[in-house]
Design the sequence.
């Protein structure tokens, strides 16, 4: 199948895909879920390529793997765990069993506990030692930070609870800048860590507790823990009534739907949080039931496979024309790159195709004035994934939303059409150039075009829609991983750096010599010690 796809690409790769457009293409190469539209017609995928790509789904038994995921089979084989973040948003979907036990009662009890607590914080019934809570600080990193931080920003029009801050980096500047803005007597600190061992998070949690203990009698009373490790949250001194636990079948980067989303729930309230979950659940239902031809996550994944593994494009840009999705590219970097950045398949054999691509991006229109130059005229092809809402939240600024939409559509059009040399020449002639100078100037103004992009359009970025978008991308990652035959749910690649950092700390502190370190590392330690004294 891979060979057929590569042969098809070799045959068709140089054609201009704008010539594929007839009356039907936009309709045939787009898919809807509710009011959401995913258009992948501005790519070089034709009916034959799509059929071959869908063949990959069958070859990789994606339907069986999908069922295995939803039904609690331990598909995370290197850690022996089920993968059930979908259970966290399974509000009315019936039992989900892991090892014969229905996990839903506990999921729903925890959700209820979160709601009760969040409402108490929001109403002022839960108080800090100086009065009602004005500020919430979520201390976590990776999946324990990016999900809630991204979603709180995305849903700012719905934010009517206390201010939320996010501290993730062990860099002292991160926590210092947040603590400076908060009053310890009215601040709630949420320590979010699945393992409750992550060095950055635990270091920041201790710093926050020291800061709070200077101002209030009982700092632990203003701490909350979100974790799978009850013994560790006990040891930290956070009482059980403010510990919100979850099971090991919730991966860190898939955890925003459960307790790790507590800061989001405090920000937007329980009803809006439930709408977010319902959006995710709706996408799950679609993903599980729709034919591959109509299946949005599967088609998004196949476009990804086409560009990364068949065409060989190394990166993809996520370009939300929705400023409140400013943290989405960072969120997707973890979701996609931690999941599918693997060099071996499930059985330990080397991959024979490339692993997942490098994901990056920024909201439009800002990116247009920064890196789009390379996207339009650089020698590398960067498939672009645009996102755009039909409506913003600022009805009085509707004209700005229209301008945003025009910019988004203009970019995908420009990427496809480009500007031919003859047109550039005519432009330069009109501007008064002639001869060699005309030719030179014209060549700088040529856009090759024929550069692929997709567009995800939705009515408005509300909690339900955000839930749909996040679940859409989660399932996309799942499908791509299944096609590549890898385990998308472990992350061994982050371990080596952690081990070396632990070993280096006493050397950096001058408590141990740098014996055995390579010349570069030893030299850098020496420089940093001399200049850090
Ligand atoms: O180091 C990577 C990682 O394990 C991520 O997968 C995870 O989201 C993050 O660290 C934080 O882990 P924890 O929630 O256990 O603190």
Sequence:
């Amino acid at each position: 199948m891979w060979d057929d796809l590569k042969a098809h690409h070799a045959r068709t790769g140089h054609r201009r895909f704008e010539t594929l457009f007839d009356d039907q293409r936009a309709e045939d190469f787009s898919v809807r879920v509710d009011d959401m539209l995913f258009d992948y017609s501005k790519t070089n995928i034709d009916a034959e390529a799509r059929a071959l790509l869908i063949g990959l789904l069958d070859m990789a038994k994606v339907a069986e793997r999908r069922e295995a995921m939803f039904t609690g089979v331990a598909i995370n084989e290197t850690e022996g765990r089920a993968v059930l973040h979908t259970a966290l948003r399974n509000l009315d979907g019936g039992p989900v069993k892991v090892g014969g036990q229905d996990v839903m009662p506990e999921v729903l009890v925890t959700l209820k506990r979160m709601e009760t607590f969040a409402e108490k914080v929001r109403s002022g019934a839960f108080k800090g030692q100086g009065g009602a809570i004005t500020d919430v600080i979520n201390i976590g990193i990776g999946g324990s930070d990016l999900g809630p931080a991204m979603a709180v920003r995305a849903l700012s029009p719905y934010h009517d609870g206390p201010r939320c801050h996010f501290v993730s980096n062990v860099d002292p500047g991160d926590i210092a800048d947040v603590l400076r803005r908060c009053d310890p007597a009215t601040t709630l600190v949420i320590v979010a860590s699945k393992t409750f061992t992550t060095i950055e998070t635990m270091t920041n949690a201790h710093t926050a507790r020291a800061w709070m203990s200077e101002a209030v009698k009982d700092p632990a009373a203003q701490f909350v823990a979100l974790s799978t490790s009850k013994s560790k949250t006990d040891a930290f001194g956070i009482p059980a009534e403010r510990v919100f636990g979850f099971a090991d079948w919730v991966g860190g980067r898939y955890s925003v739907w459960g307790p790790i989303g507590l800061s989001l729930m405090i920000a937007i309230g329980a009803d809006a949080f439930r709408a977010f979950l319902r959006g995710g659940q709706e996408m799950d239902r679609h993903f599980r039931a729709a034919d591959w031809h109509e299946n949005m996550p599967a088609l998004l994944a196949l476009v990804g496979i086409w560009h990364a593994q068949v065409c060989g494009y190394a990166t993809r840009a996520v370009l939300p024309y929705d400023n409140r999705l400013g943290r989405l590219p960072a969120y997707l970097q973890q979701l996609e790159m931690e999941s599918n950045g693997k060099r071996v398949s499930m059985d330990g054999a080397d991959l024979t195709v490339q692993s997942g691509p490098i994901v990056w991006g920024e909201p439009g229109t800002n990116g247009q004035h920064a890196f789009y130059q390379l996207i339009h005229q650089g020698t590398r092809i960067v498939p672009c994934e645009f996102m755009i809402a039909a409506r913003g939240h600022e009805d009085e600024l509707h004209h700005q939303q229209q301008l945003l939409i025009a910019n988004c559509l203009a970019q995908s059009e420009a990427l496809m059409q480009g500007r031919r040399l003859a047109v550039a020449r005519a432009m330069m002639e009109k501007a008064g150039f002639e001869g060699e100078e005309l030719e030179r100037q014209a060549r700088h103004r040529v856009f090759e075009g024929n550069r692929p992009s997709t567009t995800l359009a939705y009515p408005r970025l509300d909690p339900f829609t955000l839930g749909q978008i996040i679940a859409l991308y989660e399932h996309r990652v799942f499908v791509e991983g299944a096609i590549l035959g890898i385990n998308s749910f472990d992350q061994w690649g982050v371990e080596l750096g952690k081990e070396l950092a632990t070993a280096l700390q006493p050397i950096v502190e001058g408590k141990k010599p740098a014996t055995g370190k390579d010349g570069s590392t030893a030299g850098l330690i020496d420089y940093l010690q001399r200049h850090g004294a």
About this structure: Residues 141-144, 193-195, 198, 201, 252-253, 338, 491, 494 surround 6-O-phosphono-beta-D-fructofuranose (CB under 6 Å). The mean pLDDT is 97.
